[in-house]
Amino acid sequence: MRRIIFGSWSKFLTSWHDVSSVACPRRSRGSFAMKLSKVCAVATSLLLFSFAITLAVKPVAGQSPAPAATQKLDKKEILDKARQAYYVLQNLGVKTFQCTVQPDWKKMLDSVGKKSTEAGDPLLTQLAAVSFTAVVDEQGNATLTPTIPIGGAADPGVTQIIDGAQKMLMGFFQTWASLAFGNPYPSSNDANLTFSDQADGYHFTEKSGEQNIEMVLGRDYALITLKVTAPGVIIVTHPRFTKTDKGFLMAGAASDINNGAQKVDIQVEYQTVEGFQFPQKVSYLASLQDMTVAVEMNFAKFQITKR
Cβ neighbours of residue 70 under 8 Å, at least 6 residues apart? Predict the structure, then answer.
């Protein structure tokens, strides 16, 4: 049974505070690397935080017709219908897979430095050959290994950037795998949810300690809004899905922290590999303080094990 990653709450709160309090007045390589690392951390943690919480009850657009206005469905019926709505690779015959992931380092450096990075830039030269190998097991857990040329990444600043990118990529895999690789709705959590049928859709709420989770589903079972409130933090997430003949496939999400103080948008483009849909490119756009950072990850060389 798929785990619900509630431990990411504290991870998010920690890195959110770190990013909010970081000041980077200098443009040295060290401060540059730290700035980029912090951006990677907040984007990763926001994705982990928002989507891990939604895994508890996060129904998405369903394939069944929307019920008539007079029809009343209970919580279990709604969640059962939503569980049938996804494009789930394991249900389609995929057991495990691995691939390579190549970050667009130049685009990342351009957005952080707010100028075009020259081809011979020492930092870009060290990063250019760095990629990641990703292995996803039967439980949807990803193992990431950076591929670093011999003698590369000795500079602490470069290592910090690679570590930040790896954390961001891990955040993506934990989010994506939970929604598109395996069953995202463990029924074991149903009892913890409070349900109400309101004018604007189906409302689910859950309270855990000082965190409060609110979700609204449309009449077609599409998740409209996820709102997470914790001490000092309000996060609102709007996921996006693409409709396929085999279910709804995660296409991205836009998240807002503290009424626009920080924002992260993720977009996923897909490719067909042996008849299955796998990520081809993942694009992040993170806005915090006076900085906007664009990050792209390109996926290739898939090796798939089928059931």
Answer: none
Is residue 3 one of the residues assigned to a domain?
no
- Let me know if residue 214 belongs to a domain: yes
144 in a structural domain? yes
pTM, 2 dp: 0.76
| Rounded-to-integer distance, Cα 117 and Cα 126, Å | 13
Q: How far apart are CA 180 and CA 185, in angstroms?
A: 11
Phi and psi at residue 172, to the nearest 5°: -65, -50
Task: State residue 57's pLDDT score.
Answer: 37
Single-letter amino acid code for the residue at 88: V
pLDDT of residue 132: 97
Beta bridge partners of 293: 286
Number of domains in the chain: 1
How far is Cα 176 from Cα 47, in angstroms, rounded to an integer?
10
Structure tokens at 168: 């961001």
pLDDT, block means (10 residues), the chain with 307 residues = 33 34 36 49 47 41 45 80 86 96 93 85 89 95 89 74 89 86 72 87 86 83 84 89 90 90 93 98 86 91 96
Q: Are 233 and 17 in contact (CB under 8 A)?
A: no
- Confidence (pLDDT) at 44: 47
Cα-flanking dihedrals φ and ψ of residue 304, to 5°? -115, 135
**Per-residue burial over 278-299, b = 16 or more CB atoms within 10 Å of its CB, e = otherwise:** bbbbbbbbbbbeebebebbbbb
Torsion of CA 83, 58, 264, 47, to 10 degrees: -80
| Residues listed for the chain | 307
Angle (nearest 5°) at CA 264 between 300 and 184? 65
Range of the domain at 80: 8-306
Q: What is the pLDDT of residue 224?
A: 80
CB count within 10 Å of CB 306 equals 11
Residue 201 lies in a domain: yes
